[in-house]
């Protein structure tokens, strides 16, 4: 049964059937082939997959990110980032990375980050002389910080799929997010100096204090969300609702950017994005149940235990496999299907669950910027009005930077676990 399900799912992928539908059809074939289960199992497992409290955070964080874009919060974050790093050569490109890091501390979505920040900074970088393919590639790469720096929707999905603490996963993502963001800023600064770009990046930027006064309400948002979570004021799920209320209040009553028509459009976008993710989770829940029933996790654990002699070779093998998988399979589906299979094996090798969750999320985040199905690439292409082929060459160095950071994150677990142990004491 399991072989039929996996082969049929891959066949559907090859035929360009949508990911969620492919998983669902493969699950239906598995139920039909088994012969001992009724079709009612599918409905039961769909309900079980979705009936999890942490998943409530997914639609709220998606909505919060869209409200930040519509309400002018992201625009003020850009102005503040430009005031901090925009005064040096290449500072505008560095501002793109820094803005994505700040925006990621609320939105939890890389696609939302691409549209919200890219719509402002890609045209600005082109105006200052940066090649448009470089600007779009930088935006697509920096936006993946949206799923690494907490809060993160993929981390919520990993926690739900593996019964891991959402809070521990969130705080474990801080160090890796800062490392990747810092490495990207160093690279674009060196690139700008080498090629002579960005000599006038400081033109028209606000000084630090005026920019802060203009954007302090926007900057207060991640402080409230992350401070509330780690201060024990509210849970990560409750924080998502707080983010929505805050973004809505600031966008309507302070910045006055959100109107009835724009709010309707924002809600529409958020509902569609949420439905897509939930549809994937529902079908992946059935798929995972059938694989568990067939004993695949135990068999996979035994096989990987024989294949790899220690955790270092195991983690290397996982990185290679996830990098390839992330290129072809959507992130949410990969996490919900693979995390319950791989985490028990990782724990057998002594890998901390939060550390492994970060490794998995960073790996699959790379899939968002690599062809053929990189969602960030398509989003950046849409914003920049470019074909995806023109982004491949300038994208390669950014991928190399993130891969190098991934290796450091993988083999230096303290980067992920330092803040976790500082807060949770273990």
At a glance:
By secondary structure, this protein is mainly alpha-helical. The protein is built from 21 helices and no strands.
Task: Describe the fold and architecture.
The protein is an all-alpha fold and 426 residues long. The chain has one domain (2-424). It contains 21 helices and no strands. Helix 7 (110-127) runs antiparallel to helix 8. The two termini are 41 Å apart. The mean pLDDT is 86.
The computed structural class is mainly alpha
The average pLDDT value, as a whole number, equals 86
| Main sheet makeup | none
Shape: globular
Q: Strand portion, in percent?
A: under 5%
Low-confidence stretches: none
Count the beta strands.
0
Secondary-structure element pattern, one letter each: HHHHHHHHHHHHHHHHHHHHH
Number of helices: 21
Number of domains: 1
Radius of gyration: 21 Å
How far from one another are the termini?
A: 41 Å
**Helix content range of the residues, please?**
over 70%
Family: Belongs to the TRAP transporter large permease family.
Subunit structure: The complex comprises the extracytoplasmic solute receptor protein and the two transmembrane proteins.
Membrane topology: Multi-pass membrane protein
Subcellular location: Cell inner membrane
